[in-house]
Amino acid sequence: MAACAKGLDKLIFSLRSLRTLQLRNERGLSTSVCRPSPREDNDPPKFTPPPKPVVIDKTQTVASMRKFLSPEFIPPRQRTDPFKFSMERKDMVRRRKVLNIPEFYAGSILAVTMADPNASGKMNRFVGICIQRGGKGLGATFVLRNIIDNQGVEICYEMYSPRIQSVEVLKLEKRLDDNLMYLRDALPEYSTVDPDMKPESCSTSGEVPVNKIKVRMLPKPWSKHWERPRFGIQGIRFDLCMTPRQMEFVQKWAQPWQEYDMLKEYDTSRLEEQIFSEVQREMSK
Amino acid sequence: MRLTLQMLISHGRVARKMGMGPQSRINMLRNILTGLVRHERIETTQARADEVRFYAEKLVDYAKKGDTDEKAMKMASFWLTEKDLVPKLFKVLAPRFESHPNGYTRMARIPCTQNLDRAKMAVLEYKGNPFPPIYPTKKQNELTLINQLLKGYREERAQLFAAKS
């Protein structure tokens, strides 16, 4: 053991000397490159492109820009210390400074490129409609759905994962519901998105367009009882798939007292304003 | 070995189970709340009083928003089963608690029970009610020796202070 240690010492010393020699050599080379060497006179000077112009859009004022706070910033109602959420928010802002995560809702069409060691070109791109935005804080996720070769594919991406290289919004729009999981039981035409779709221009001011489409469903049985009032789904054409008698029967599961239950209310308006101003400040630094 | 402690721990659930289900619980709390708004002091079991306390305070918060607010009116008409108490809520209770930011109720646990089932009872009241207080303050008798001596001492000190300044 002592012999190995001695040998290691000599190795480390030799490595160190090599490194210092290399550094000295590099330093020597770099100083020589800075000075105009006779080698450069034979080749023409290297082309340096002109600096890119900085575009400042003064047609849209700051006041008219739409105020959007991503839902994963709003902490849930818990007994944890708010310091934990503020720490998470700092990390989220740090990641957002590197990767631009645009504003999107359930029902918008996104294209996500993710680093993949097994794919050719090391990246894979997936285009789909966002059906759900879940999770709070750094573990926030969104699920994209698309139908490729007659096979429905859903991928759940973590927004703050370092594997994600870019998130583009191809079409920004909202739907009548926050959760479009019922698209699994809808006709495939409502979930197909063209993978080579071009991004549509979206305005940064004004209301986000709400697509009031009502989706037609496949015949029952569905994966969940989407007709029940606990899901509160507005975006399905129930008149085509259910009789009025069935609709009345389903009201048995209605809980009308829930909207009056004050214990279930979680008023986030003040919290939202606070967090929005905090995030704006951090992002502009 | 599967430990089922997960099923025994409530994990952040704030609503107690009462009655025969969530609907029965809400109906029971509604009745108790209506009684509280009518009589301003009621006696129930400790668990029910604790649950109603939260709803009573939230109802007053809604009442403070005013008569004209739609949501406030809907809440009041849902929670008060006797409709003649709705104007009482908006016109008597809401102005009474204008200056209070929170804490409109007081709950006191009662020791002895005359009930057969030995249930622990509590008294829940809105502050500012016309009844005598639950915790009566003992008035100090001024005519006792010690109180007279202390009174004399305080007066002497006041005289000295006035003479100095």
UniProtKB/TrEMBL annotation, chain B:
Coiled coil: none
Any single Gene Ontology cellular-component annotation: mitochondrial large ribosomal subunit
Name the UniProt record assigns to this protein: Large ribosomal subunit protein bL17m
Compartments where found: Mitochondrion
Family designation: Belongs to the bacterial ribosomal protein bL17 family.
Protein's organism: Scophthalmus maximus
InterPro entries, A to Z: Ribosomal_bL17 (IPR000456), Ribosomal_bL17_sf (IPR036373)
Pfam families attached to this UniProt entry: Ribosomal_L17 (PF01196)
Keyword Mitochondrion: yes
Gene3D superfamilies per UniProt: Ribosomal protein L17
Superkingdom of origin organism: Eukaryota
GO-annotated molecular function: structural constituent of ribosome
Keyword Ribosomal protein: yes
Keywords tagged on the record: Mitochondrion, Ribonucleoprotein, Ribosomal protein, Transit peptide
GO-annotated biological processes: translation
